[in-house]
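wait is this the right file?? whatever heres the structure
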């Protein structure tokens, strides 16, 4: 079986064709057109799918692809496939009937879930040692443009009654703190996203860093203006991990997202802090990185196809 795994974010839409054994047949990505709201975002997503379908020679007369799995930013009802809530990172996205729109356009089965959920599912698919223990609980926290999160307990995703299960980015870390684009104040995302880190360092130093790697390089050179910001960042991150460990009590907490690209500069400090807290969960960097969301979305539609007993040719 061959399916498309699609990952819709505020910066880019990424897609790949993958087989049920996890082999990637084609990949394509495009900048997300957020300037024209919902229509623009949909056009970006369609364009990625159209390109992948033409690469593999799929059409309605001779279908090659059997389904499309979608992971999207925002809160998603995985049953209806609707976007229940989205911030201005994806303007106009809230209320989009994503599953129905894709099913009508491509005449294929479609699954939809939150992008952090698909990232965790993808990580579990490709990371066998973690997957073997998934019944004991795995939490994922992604520190990128925003902060995403997902929880797997008893081997299953916990989406919750308002589809916000695992939305660690919007728990309040600092009461009355920085304003968040979700309408609250002091959300974790305003302190632990890569974007928030760059903003905080630029404000404190008067410099204009554009990426985390140069910040962490200066940190490693013991730059006195950068140091306290990074220490604060690590402290907040450790508090969060300790809180997750105590509340959910998973075996593993996986850290992903762009901030992890610089982990060699700060991982030892995080471990020291976690040691001080006596944090019980094992905190590890995610392995699959940028492709996890696409793998997870693909895995979800493959499982749905299996349940529907669609004939599966394992040799493809
Ligand atoms: Zn928030």
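ok assuming it is, sequence goes like this
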């Amino acid at each position: 079986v061959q399916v498309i795994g699609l990952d819709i974010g505020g910066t880019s839409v990424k897609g790949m064709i993958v087989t049920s054994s996890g082999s990637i047949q084609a990949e394509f990505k495009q900048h997300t057109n957020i300037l024209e709201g919902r229509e623009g975002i949909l056009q970006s997503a369609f364009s990625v799918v159209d390109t992948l379908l033409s690469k593999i020679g799929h059409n309605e007369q001779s279908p090659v692809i059997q389904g499309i799995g979608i992971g999207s930013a925002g809160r998603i009802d995985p049953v209806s496939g609707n976007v229940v809530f989205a911030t201005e990172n994806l303007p106009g996205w809230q209320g989009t009937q994503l599953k129905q729109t894709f099913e009508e356009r491509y005449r294929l089965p479609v699954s939809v879930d939150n992008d952090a959920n698909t990232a965790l599912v993808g990580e579990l698919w490709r990371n066998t040692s973690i997957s073997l223990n998934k019944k004991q609980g795995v939490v994922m926290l992604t520190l990128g443009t925003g902060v995403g999160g997902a929880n797997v307990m008893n081997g299953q995703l916990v989406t919750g009654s308002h589809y916000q299960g695992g939305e660690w980015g919007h728990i309040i870390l600092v009461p009355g703190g920085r304003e968040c684009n979700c309408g609250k104040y002091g959300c974790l995302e305003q302190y632990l996203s890569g974007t928030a880190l760059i903003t905080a360092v630029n404000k404190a130093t008067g410099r204009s860093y554009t990426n985390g790697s140069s910040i962490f390089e200066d940190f490693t050179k013991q730059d006195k203006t950068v140091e306290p910001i990074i220490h604060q960042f690590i402290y907040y991150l450790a508090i969060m991990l300790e809180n997750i460990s105590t509340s959910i009590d998973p075996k593993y907490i996986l850290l992903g997202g762009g901030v992890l690209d610089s982990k060699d500069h700060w991982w030892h400090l995080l471990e020291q802090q976690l040691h001080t807290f006596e944090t019980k969960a094992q905190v590890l960097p995610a392995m699959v990185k940028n492709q996890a969301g696409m793998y997870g979305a693909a895995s979800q539609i493959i499982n749905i196809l299996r349940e529907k007993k669609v004939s599966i040719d394992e040799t493809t």
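The first helix runs from residue 37 to 56. so i think its the right one actually
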